[in-house]
Design brief:
The complex is a heterodimer of chains A (264) and B (300). Chain A is built from ten helices and ten strands. Chain A is α/β, with parallel strands linked by helices. The termini of chain B are far apart. Chain B has eleven helices and two strands. Classes of the chains: A alpha/beta (264), B mainly alpha (300).
Chain lengths: 264, 300
């Protein structure tokens, strides 16, 4: 039997904005069920990397390959964001981007959109199939809210929620797209220590329940060190280190990237 | 009192028609931030399609209500096809262009469609058959409300109700609201934004077509340029109510309809448009985002 290929394979990914090289020849792999962290100083290109993965930016060079657990393998670069979501990538944002005027439940229901097939005609005629599907979407969304323990907010308008709940809701919405790989962009940003440790437990629980891999960008090193199976460190768009949390902690290059070079 | 009621209902009828057209402006604006200046022409095309159909069907000897239904149906399909095509060829290629480009493209489309109908049909006013029969039971109230007013009001009410259900309670409606709030996020959640935009144009055009058929039958004559003034008025109504807001468009339309109707009735019909646009100017001075429009903070 051939070797098992990692879920996500990124090969030589480069992204340039005019003369600015945001990412340069970056390699990265995420296997099924793994939690991988991407860390690096501000402006290192981490969010740009997520934008390339999800199709918001078209990378200048390199390959993004997704080997789905069901055996389908595809190249993601060149696809539109909605197609990439359909293939199983979902993400959250550094600055929360909920549909703030909609209810919590509706936000999650939007996430279900791409997995259900009721057409426009169905929406107008509202036959039994459409209604059954609508009920199924509501059920599924509500179940996700229950798993993340925010079901009590289901009918509240998203913008009225406490900050921590908004963060959780973003994750719930991403889960509704049924991803195989979940990308979390600074999920702990703005959370207090208690909320952060709850998030830690929540992320592990999500991995178990939804059987997915997680790639996260995070500045909270305590969270990163406790959650991650492996860590990639980028600086100025280049990969400067990778390894287990223990290896990264003792890597002088990483410390140097964060603290700056000693010129003396 | 009776005169007041008459003006009230004629304003309501007018407002309903404006609302049917204004919804197309406001929905398209809500989703892609474009003022679709060709929208009035879609309404005009709806009226012409209905006229052609009605003529043929009447020759075949169908009863008036069947003629009305079938012509309206044909007008909806044909206008929707036009709306879809206009979006596809004039706006979609400019999706990422500066804001001014699709606006100019829209004005170009408007001029093109007017002249196309001018050449293909005629420059003169053509008479439109009164497809809405006079209901005998409405006779005692004739001075207050005519049967075509009644049909217009009921049709509009039903259409609004269906539209509300579509937007609030269905999957495509949810996708539309999501796209309006944050297009990029909608895309990232797997929504086919291009499809949502097409659907929005189809719905807007269908509503305009219904408006076109009803008003043509009510007034009794049409020509190639009716879309211009109707478009401007409906646009005014949409801005009044707060462009981008669906209930706002309806509210603005009714307000505009009553303003025109009462100004005509109590002052002079010469000043109808003066009052309509004075109302717009006042709203823009004191509440620039419209009655129900929300002030949007610029995202950093």
């Amino acid at each position: 039997m051939s070797e098992v290929r990692p879920l996500l394979e990124v090969r030589g990914l480069s992204m340039a904005f005019g003369g600015l090289r945001a990412l340069h020849d970056l390699d990265l792999e995420v296997s099924c069920g793994e939690i991988v962290a991407l860390i690096g100083p501000n402006g290192a290109g981490k969010t740009t990397f997520f934008n390339c993965l999800t199709g918001v930016y078209a990378p200048s060079a390199g390959d993004i390959l997704l080997n789905r657990p069901d055996g389908k393998a595809l190249r993601l670069n060149g696809l539109l964001p909605n197609q990439i979501t359909k293939h199983g990538l979902a993400r959250t944002f550094q600055n929360i981007r909920l549909f703030s005027e909609m209810t919590v439940l509706e936000n999650v229901m939007i996430g279900c959109h791409c997995r259900h097939r009721a057409g426009i005609l169905g929406a107008i005629l509202r036959g039994p199939a459409t209604r059954a599907e609508e009920a199924a979407i509501i059920d599924k969304s509500y179940t996700i809210l229950q798993h993340l323990r925010i079901a009590q907010y289901a009918n509240d308008v998203a913008k009225s929620l406490p900050y921590g709940v908004q963060r959780t809701l973003e994750i719930a919405r991403a889960l509704a797209t049924e991803p195989v790989l979940l990308l979390l962009d600074e999920p702990a940003a703005g959370l207090n220590p208690t909320e952060t440790s709850e998030l830690d437990a929540l992320i592990l629980q999500i991995r178990e329940r939804y059987r997915l891999a997680i790639l996260l960008i995070e500045h909270d090193m305590k969270l990163v060190m406790s959650l991650s199976d492996r860590i990639y460190v980028v600086d100025y768009g280049e990969r400067i280190a990778q390894g287990t949390p223990a290896e990264i902690r003792n890597n002088p290059a990483v410390i140097k990237a964060y603290l700056g070079e000693d010129d003396a | 009192m009776e005169y007041f009621l008459e003006l009230f209902f004629s304003g309501l009828t007018r407002g309903s028609i404006y609302a049917l057209i204004a919804l197309g402006y406001t929905m398209v604006y809500g989703i892609i931030g474009l003022i679709n200046f060709a929208h009035g022409e879609i309404y005009m095309i709806g009226a012409f399609t209905a006229l052609i159909c009605a003529t043929v069907l009447t020759i075949w000897g169908l009863p008036p209500l069947a003629v009305l239904g079938l012509s309206a149906f044909a007008a909806i399909i044909w206008s929707a096809a036009y709306g879809l095509t206009v979006e596809r060829i004039a706006y979609r290629p400019l999706r990422h262009a500066p804001r001014l480009s699709p606006l100019i493209s829209a004005i170009g489309m408007s001029i093109f469609l007017q002249n196309y109908v001018l050449l293909a049909q005629t420059a003169d006013f053509v008479s439109f058959p009164a497809l809405i029969p006079d209901f005998a039971w409405l006779e005692p109230y004739r001075s207050i409300i005519g049967s075509s007013d009644l049909v217009i009001l009921l049709t509009t009410a039903v259409v609004m109700l269906l539209l509300t259900i579509l937007i609030k309670g269905t999957k495509i409606g949810r996708a539309m609201r999501a796209t309006a709030q944050d297009r990029e996020m909608a895309l990232l959640l797997g929504i086919d934004v291009n499809l949502v935009i097409s659907v929005t144009f189809v719905i807007g055009s269908a509503l305009a077509a219904i408006g076109g058929v009803l008003i043509a039958s009510h007034i009794g004559q049409i020509n190639f340029a009716i879309g211009f003034l109707a478009g401007i008025k409906a646009f005014t109504a949409a801005v009044l109510g707060g462009i981008g807001s669906v209930p706002g468009a309806v509210l603005g339309s009714l307000l505009l309809g009553w303003t025109e109707s009462f100004a005509t009735g109590y002052i002079s019909s010469d000043y109808e448009d003066v009052f309509a646009f004075a109302l717009l100017v006042l709203i823009l001075i004191f509440r620039p985002s419209g009655i129900l429009g929300r002030h949007h903070n610029q995202k950093v």
